[in-house]
Target: Histidine phosphatase family protein
Amino acid sequence: MWPSLQSVYLARHGQTEWNVQHRWQGQLDSPLTDLGRVQAQTVASLVADEPVDAVFCSPQGRAAATAQVCGDRLGLPVTPLDELAELHHGSMAGMTLPEMEHAFPGELARRGEDKYRWQFPGGESYEDAVPRAAQALARVASSGAQHPLLVSHEMIGRLLLHHLRRVDIATALAGSHPQGVVYRVQVATGTLTTLGEPASLPPR
Model:
């Protein structure tokens, strides 16, 4: 499907202020925290000795900032791709779970009944974003990269893994991607290897 791709490295952006506040960001943004900057450096270190030949990122600032740290370490330019943006959270973007339930009573329960097809009010569902994730991989492959690093988000990252590993959607949506680790996928086999462990701040 992507003949030029041999291995793909997937990273999630570092921790943000809204992550700490348990706010769902979607395509909105908030700055990296001190821990988030440590996690970006950790990701850069994890791929420093890997054969990464290109760096792509989501257009969201938190992903771009994380990717730039990696690009600087690797001596590679960073290319933003709109297709790597996080799922659009619509009117729920920026809210905590209690705020979502207050503003949209019953929606979270409906999400639990069909996580794949449920759509954020005014935003996207996982089902909506599946073609976008495939298009992102096609654009990366068309660049000629063989071992690209993609810095994006947890939700769109699940769909990237759905395509790359050729796993069913339920398996993909059950996965998680901790910040500060890198997933390496061998494209020919779909084999996934986890590089690193979640980073933590040094004692003060």
Summary: The first strand starts at residue 7 and ends at 12.
